[in-house]
Amino acid sequence: MPTLLNPDYRLTIQFSLGGLSFVLFDTAARSVADLELHQSDSLNNADELFRVLEKDLRPRDLGNGRCQSVTCIVDGRTSTLVPEDLYRPADCDKLLSFGFTLPSGYVTAADPVENHQAYNLYTYPEALRDRILAKWPEAQICHSTTVFLKSLPQSETPVVHVNVRNRDFDMAIMQDRLLFFNNFKFQTKVDFSYYLLYAMQQHELSGLETPVWFTGLIQPGSEIIDLCRRYLKDIRFVTRPRDFKVKEMLGEVPFQYYYNHYQILK
Q1: What's the mean pLDDT in 196-210?
Q2: CB neighbours of 195 closer than 8 A, spacing ≥ 6?
Q3: What is the DSSP letter of 222?
């Protein structure tokens, strides 16, 4: 088993077919020591993802060692929420198959989402699981939508939350409880705004009054946000908490890009 090179570091990695990101967090300094983001259509399998990851970790003296903890966040659109009362570990494949054709070469997993009294059922590549556990046998693996759902704050009035990934986004509506959650695949800014506004309309939410919070791979000056501003008057982006320090050289990376990592590390 590899030696523990730096027990003060926690490592979080987010994998998707099309990209990866990681954050190295120094627990002693309570600061982000390093972060990296890669987006490419060539990163479409476990071998390619790990080739890029290993290249990044090696000069950071982490190529053959472990940190205090490693958490791997996996992406993918094959996921669904199941109420706690209906969840049975042996029925995961059956429950997922109601809404999806389960891909071959994938494994099924389930994450508890305690704040919504539900389980998040999902699939991700078996080859990716094997590569993760071969390198970090004690790594924790969870789905990105689990992290997103756990991060949603309570609200007495309706609030929309949107987490943007590479070519899809998660959307949730909160008011005292989780009223709506879904994932939408988009190709253009028009697709994006249509799905968002249609879901809001179905829940009778006004674009003039309802706050819409954005996280993930999106920036305030993007074409998507410019179009959304025509119909939404209260668009907000998460901001980095003061007690979550980032090295000056990394400070230009938008906080929303690594918001999921922060949720794991806080």
Answers
A1: 97
A2: 169, 171, 184, 186
A3: S
